Structures are given as C-alpha cells and as structure tokens.
C-alpha cells in the first residue's frame, strides 16, 4: 500500500515537472520581455488584483521594469509602464502595435466600427470617419457653435433644479450627448427625454461594468464564463440595445437620403457606401455604419460626461481652485456672453484646471488594449504578432518627476512660474500615436472645458448669469451640412 502511495506521488511529481518544463520551453521560445512565471490555464492571474489592475501593473513594473510580460489566462500580454516605454510603443511603433486587443463584452462590434475593430476595414473606417468629422462642416467653427448652442439648454436644466440638491449624472450628460448626437444623426434630446436618459444609462452602466473584476475575468475566460450567470449578460444586452438604436437611426436616414443634401455624419457615410470604390468592399456595410455611429455616440458622450461630473466633484472639494477659476471666468468671459474657443488663450488657469482634472481623474488608466500586428522588436525583445499590448496611461499621468505630489489635485502642475499654461508631454489622457489615439481629439480644444465654464458660471455665478433663449432649436433641422 505504502509502495503504491510512493509510486503515485512520484508519478504526480514527474508529471508536474514535465508540465513545467514544456511550459517553460513554450514560454522561453520567444525573446519576450521579463515577467512572473505563468501557471497553466490561469497564467499570472494570482499576481493581479482584479479590483485594481492598474495598481498591480505598477507593482509588477517595480519588480520587472517598464516592459514586462504577463499571461492573462493563456493570453500573452506585454505591459508598458512609464513615459519612455509608452511613448516608444505608441509613436515609434505606431504601425506595429496599433491593433486592438479583444474586449469580449463588445463582441457585437467585432471587426466593425472604429474602437473595437481589429479587422481589415478598421483603417478605412477610421480614416473616413475622421475626414468627415474634421472636414465636412464638423471642423472647428462648426463644433464650437454646436457646443455654444447647447450651453443654454444645460443652464436652463440647471436652473430648473432651483438650488436643490440633484444628481448631476444625466443632466450634465445631456450636453455632450446632444453635441455628438447632432453631429452623428441630427438629434437633439430634451433634458427629460426618456430615450436620451436610457442611452446615457446604458453608456454609464457599461463604463462602470467594464472596470469591475467580473468583466475583467470574463474578458480573460470568455468561453468558460459565458454561460454562467453574471453581469456580462447585462453588458452584452446593453451593447446590443445601443446598437439597435443606432441601426434604427441609420435605416431611417437611408430612407430619406438625398445625395445632394447630406444632413449629418450618418448621411455622409451612407453616401460613401454608394460610391463604387466602397460598394465592393465586404467590410463596408450598413452594419459597419451602425457600429461606427454607436462607437462615437458611446465614446463621445460617456468620456466627456464623466469628466464633467468628476470635475465638479473636484471643484467642490477644492473651493480655493473654484474661486480662482471663477475670477478668471468673470474677467475674461464676463457675465453676458457664452464661452468661445478664443477665450482659451486668455484663460491659462481654466486650461490648467481642465488638464489637471483629466490627469487627476485618470479616466482610462490602462488605456484600451492594443495588439501587435506583426512580430515586433522592442528594446531587444520580441513581441510576437497577436500579443496584447497595454500602454498604461496612469504611469505618465502620475509620474512623480513630471507632476510632483501626483496624488494631489494641483492646477499648478500645468502652470509655469508666470501663471501661464505649461504644456506637458506626459499628459496623454487621450493616448497618442495617430493610428489608434482618441478620435475625439478632432474636437476643438478640450471638449470638457466649454460646458465646464458654463456650469461653474451658473452654479457659482449668482442671478445675473446671462441665459440666452433656447427657443427655435433645433434650427433648420432639415438643412444640409455646409461643407467647409
Ligand atoms: C475626456 C474625453 C476623452 C478621453 C479622456 C478619451 C480617451 C480615449 C482613449 C485613452 C482612447 C484609447 C486610444 C488608444 O487605443 O490608444 C480613446 C479612443 C477613442 N475615442 Fe476617446 N476620449 C475622450 C473623448 C472622446 C470623444 C468626444 C470621442 C468622439 C466624438 C471619442 C472617440 C473615441 C474613439 C472612436 C476611439 C477609438 C479609436 C480607435 O480605436 O481607433 N473620444 N479615447
């Protein structure tokens, strides 16, 4: 009996050694960046706190350096930490590392649209969308006016709260939601509109769910966890509902499309679809347009809305910052007109506060996952094709040298000794690299600064704040885009 026990123990021991040696062979067959030894099936999950992955990355970077390898389940992943490594990856290797790592909760968007597209049509969809957002009447002036036209609606809704406590989530969210909805499909939601609220609730819920431990785990083990009950089902349903909404808008537009009079972004894409050079492209479909619109609707609304909400929270916590900001708003904009882009030049403090809010709230600390498009030599290592690459952004935004005392909210991080705005190349809240970086950057200035000045002005400005009329909106809703 004892002999049998010893034999079994020996066999188990040998099998374990064999497994480790096979695993080591696979693992060391590439010149991968260093990293903790992965276990079969779960990889390096034990090294990660799924509730705070960015913090785990920072700890691992202390041990393995700014470029390290991790296995999330069986998915090989290279994490880049710190200014030099992230910049090198996003700028010097922008062609090699601009694929998109898969996010399974967005399966419905797979290989379609912009954000979650890793397929053959991504580049063209992105290029076409950017061209339209930039050139076709949605460039600087057009967007400035759009944002300015929205401000009275926001102020009116704020006034409606009559100084009582209120939840600002949807009220603030309607402003960016309407600006982007106007560009995409010429829609303006009333601030009590149920569909507008519903869309915002879905965006908001998805953003929150994406950072939960369960969704991170689901992304690592989608096939094991898919059929279990859990919040991934909610997320999948939400993604599908948003896409149904944008699909309905696209079909509506298709029915009333007039080639001589494109009304918005959706019309422009529908007209491209009719062109010969795209009509034969298998990726350019109505579904691709619906997903592109959904990507922009979600990304354009939730990011700006969350930034505004957290911005207000920060100002409540730092009344001395709000006071200085308010002084500058009163001095430059005054009580009787709406903020304009040109004001930014004379408002270094506002510029610094908005940058500091974006730095401090660290909206996407681990960026969106990239993927290596080809075997890539990086600092003497090889990052094999198909490896997920994570160019962390918090490692730049919280760099101790660039932003001394980084955990404290200090607009001075972006001001020089003369009180002028100080640019920092470490400010990469929108990522970088032209290939994959944030599409919202085509918007004039920093998107959140406009509505922020209006909100600050209203909340702290007293009764004499100018409130232009919101009557007659949307103006000439049937008119065509003026191509500028
Ligand atoms: C506070 C505002 C915003 C922040 C902090 C932000 C941040 C980001 C970041 C970090 C990425 C990932 C880039 C990468 O993969 O390297 C991204 C991607 C993207 N953003 Fe934004 N964004 C903001 C506003 C917007 C707006 C207003 C829009 C649209 C109108 C937008 C549309 C997109 C799209 C479409 C992508 C995917 C780009 C691609 O995969 O090619 N974002 N954003």
TrEMBL record:
<dbReference type="GO" id="GO:0005743">
    <property type="term" value="C:mitochondrial inner membrane"/>
</dbReference>
<keyword id="KW-0276">Fatty acid metabolism</keyword>
<keyword id="KW-0479">Metal-binding</keyword>
<dbReference type="InterPro" id="IPR008070">
    <property type="entry name" value="Cyt_P450_E_grp-I_CYP2E-like"/>
</dbReference>
<keyword id="KW-0256">Endoplasmic reticulum</keyword>
<keyword id="KW-0349">Heme</keyword>
<dbReference type="GO" id="GO:0018960">
    <property type="term" value="P:4-nitrophenol metabolic process"/>
</dbReference>
<protein>
    <recommendedName>
        <fullName>Cytochrome P450 2E1</fullName>
        <ecNumber>1.14.13.n7</ecNumber>
        <ecNumber>1.14.14.1</ecNumber>
    </recommendedName>
</protein>
<dbReference type="GO" id="GO:0020037">
    <property type="term" value="F:heme binding"/>
</dbReference>
<keyword id="KW-0521">NADP</keyword>
<dbReference type="GO" id="GO:0030544">
    <property type="term" value="F:Hsp70 protein binding"/>
</dbReference>
<dbReference type="GO" id="GO:0008202">
    <property type="term" value="P:steroid metabolic process"/>
</dbReference>
<dbReference type="GO" id="GO:0018601">
    <property type="term" value="F:4-nitrophenol 2-monooxygenase activity"/>
</dbReference>
<dbReference type="GO" id="GO:0016098">
    <property type="term" value="P:monoterpenoid metabolic process"/>
</dbReference>
<dbReference type="GO" id="GO:0051879">
    <property type="term" value="F:Hsp90 protein binding"/>
</dbReference>
<keyword id="KW-0443">Lipid metabolism</keyword>
<dbReference type="GO" id="GO:0005789">
    <property type="term" value="C:endoplasmic reticulum membrane"/>
</dbReference>
<dbReference type="Pfam" id="PF00067">
    <property type="entry name" value="p450"/>
</dbReference>
<comment type="similarity">
    <text>Belongs to the cytochrome P450 family.</text>
</comment>
<dbReference type="InterPro" id="IPR050182">
    <property type="entry name" value="Cytochrome_P450_fam2"/>
</dbReference>
<dbReference type="GO" id="GO:0019373">
    <property type="term" value="P:epoxygenase P450 pathway"/>
</dbReference>
<dbReference type="GO" id="GO:0002933">
    <property type="term" value="P:lipid hydroxylation"/>
</dbReference>
<dbReference type="GO" id="GO:0120319">
    <property type="term" value="F:long-chain fatty acid omega-1 hydroxylase activity"/>
</dbReference>
<comment type="subunit">
    <text>Interacts with chaperones HSP70 and HSP90; this interaction is required for initial targeting to mitochondria.</text>
</comment>
<keyword id="KW-0408">Iron</keyword>
<dbReference type="InterPro" id="IPR002401">
    <property type="entry name" value="Cyt_P450_E_grp-I"/>
</dbReference>
<dbReference type="GO" id="GO:0005506">
    <property type="term" value="F:iron ion binding"/>
</dbReference>
<comment type="function">
    <text>A cytochrome P450 monooxygenase involved in the metabolism of fatty acids. Mechanistically, uses molecular oxygen inserting one oxygen atom into a substrate, and reducing the second into a water molecule, with two electrons provided by NADPH via cytochrome P450 reductase (NADPH--hemoprotein reductase). Catalyzes the hydroxylation of carbon-hydrogen bonds. Hydroxylates fatty acids specifically at the omega-1 position displaying the highest catalytic activity for saturated fatty acids. May be involved in the oxidative metabolism of xenobiotics.</text>
</comment>
<comment type="pathway">
    <text>Lipid metabolism; fatty acid metabolism.</text>
</comment>
<keyword id="KW-0560">Oxidoreductase</keyword>
<dbReference type="GO" id="GO:0006805">
    <property type="term" value="P:xenobiotic metabolic process"/>
</dbReference>
<keyword id="KW-0472">Membrane</keyword>
<keyword id="KW-0999">Mitochondrion inner membrane</keyword>
<keyword id="KW-0503">Monooxygenase</keyword>
<keyword id="KW-0496">Mitochondrion</keyword>
<dbReference type="InterPro" id="IPR036396">
    <property type="entry name" value="Cyt_P450_sf"/>
</dbReference>
<keyword id="KW-0492">Microsome</keyword>
<dbReference type="GO" id="GO:0008392">
    <property type="term" value="F:arachidonate epoxygenase activity"/>
</dbReference>
<dbReference type="GO" id="GO:0019899">
    <property type="term" value="F:enzyme binding"/>
</dbReference>
<dbReference type="InterPro" id="IPR001128">
    <property type="entry name" value="Cyt_P450"/>
</dbReference>
């Amino acid at each position: 009996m004892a002999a049998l026990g010893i034999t079994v123990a020996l066999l188990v021991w040998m099998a374990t050694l064999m497994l480790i040696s096979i695993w080591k062979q696979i693992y060391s067959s590439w010149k991968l960046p260093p990293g903790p030894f992965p276990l079969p099936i779960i990889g390096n999950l034990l090294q990660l706190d799924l509730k705070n992955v960015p913090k785990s990355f920072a700890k691992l970077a202390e041990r393995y350096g700014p470029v390290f390898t991790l296995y999330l389940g069986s998915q090989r992943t290279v994490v880049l930490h710190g200014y030099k490594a992230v910049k090198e990856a996003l700028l010097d290797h922008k062609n090699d590392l601009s694929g998109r790592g898969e996010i399974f909760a967005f399966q419905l968007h797979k290989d379609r649209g912009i954000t979650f597209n890793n397929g053959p049509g991504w580049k063209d969809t992105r290029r076409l969308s950017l061209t339209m957002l930039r050139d076709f009447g949605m460039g600087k002036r057009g967007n400035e006016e759009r944002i300015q036209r929205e401000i009275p609606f926001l102020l009116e809704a704020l006034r409606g709260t009559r100084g009582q406590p209120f939840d600002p989530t949807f009220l603030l969210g309607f402003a960016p939601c309407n600006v982007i909805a106007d560009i995409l499909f010429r829609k303006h939601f009333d601030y009590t509109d149920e569909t507008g609220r519903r869309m915002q609730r879905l965006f908001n819920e998805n953003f929150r769910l994406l950072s939960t431990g369960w969704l991170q785990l689901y992304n690592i083990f989608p096939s094991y966890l898919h059929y279990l009950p859990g919040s991934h089902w909610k997320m999948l349903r939400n993604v599908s509902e948003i896409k149904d909404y944008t699909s309905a808008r696209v079909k509506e537009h298709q029915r009333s499309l007039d080639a001589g009079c494109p009304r918005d972004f959706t019309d422009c894409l529908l007209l491209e679809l009719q062109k010969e050079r795209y009509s034969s492209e298998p990726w350019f479909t109505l579904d691709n347009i619906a997903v592109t619109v959904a990507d922009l609707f979600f990304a354009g609304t939730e990011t700006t809305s969350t930034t505004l909400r957290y911005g207000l929270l920060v100002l409540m916590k730092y009344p001395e910052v709000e006071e200085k900001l308010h002084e500058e708003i009163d001095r430059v904009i005054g009580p009787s007109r709406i903020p304009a882009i040109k004001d930014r030049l004379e408002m270094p403090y506002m510029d610094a506060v908005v940058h500091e809010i974006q730095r401090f709230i660290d909206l996407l600390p681990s960026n969106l996952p990239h993927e290596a498009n080809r075997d890539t030599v990086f600092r003497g290592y090889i990052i094999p094709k198909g490896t997920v690459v994570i160019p962390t952004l918090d490692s730049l935004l919280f760099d101790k040298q660039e932003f001394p005392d980084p955990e404290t909210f200090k607009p001075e991080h972006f001001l020089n000794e003369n009180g002028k705005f100080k640019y920092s190349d470490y400010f990469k809240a929108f990522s970088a690299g032209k290939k994959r970086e944030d599409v919202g950057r085509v918007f004039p200035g920093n998107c959140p600064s406009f509505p922020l000045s209006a909100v600050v002005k209203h909340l702290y400005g007293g009764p004499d704040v100018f409130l232009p009329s919101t009557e007659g909106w949307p103006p000439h809703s049937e008119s065509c885009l003026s191509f500028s």
